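Thread: quick sanity check before group meeting

JM: Hey all, I'm pulling together slides for Thursday and realized we never actually wrote out the predicted structure for the chain we discussed last week. Dropping the sequence here so it's in one place. If anyone has concerns about the input, flag it before I start.
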Amino acid sequence: METKRKTNKKLIDFSDRQLEMIDLISEHTGFTKTADIVRIGIQELYDKYYKSYKTGQSSRTLGNQSEETLVKNAMIKSKAKILTEQAEEEMRLQPKIDICKNVLHGEIETNSNGTKICRFKQYNAFFPEKDNDQVVPLSQVGVYLADTSLFIPAKEVVFKNRKDIKDKFNDNI
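JM (edit): ok, ran it. Output follows.
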C-alpha cells in the first residue's frame, strides 16, 4: 500500500534583492529550483531555533529514553569534547615541542599537576660540572631560550671551549 504525501502550495512574493540572493545561492549550490532553496532555507531556520529537530530527537523521545541511555550519550559527547580539546592543545603546542626537542635538545615531560614542561641542559663554557638542567613550562618555550638560557656566558664561548657541545648542536642555533 502506497501512501501519498499531501502537497500544499503557497504563493510567495520575492523582492528583487531576494531573487538576486536566490540566483547566487543557486549558482553556489547547484540547486536549480527556487522551491528547493526555499525548503532548505526553512529547514536551516527550523534547525537553528529547534535544535532537538536537528538531532532527530524531539522532547517526547528524550522523555522515553532510559536514564542509562541518557548517561551513555552524555559520556560519549563528553569524551569527544575532551579528545577534541586535547588535539587542539597538541596542535597549538606542536611548534613549542619542536623547539624544545630540535633547538634546545630537550625532552618533553608532564609534571605532577598534568602540565607539560621542557627540560633541557644549560651549558657552561668553563665548568662542565656546572651544566644544569633547566625546566620551562612548554607554553613559555621559544627560540629566545637558545640565545638567553642555553649557553653561559654565550654560545660562541661555549663552542670555542667545549668541542663536544659544538658537535652536539652542529651549529644549527
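AS: nice. The first helix runs from residue 16 to 29. Residues 95-169 form one domain.
JM: adding both to the slides.
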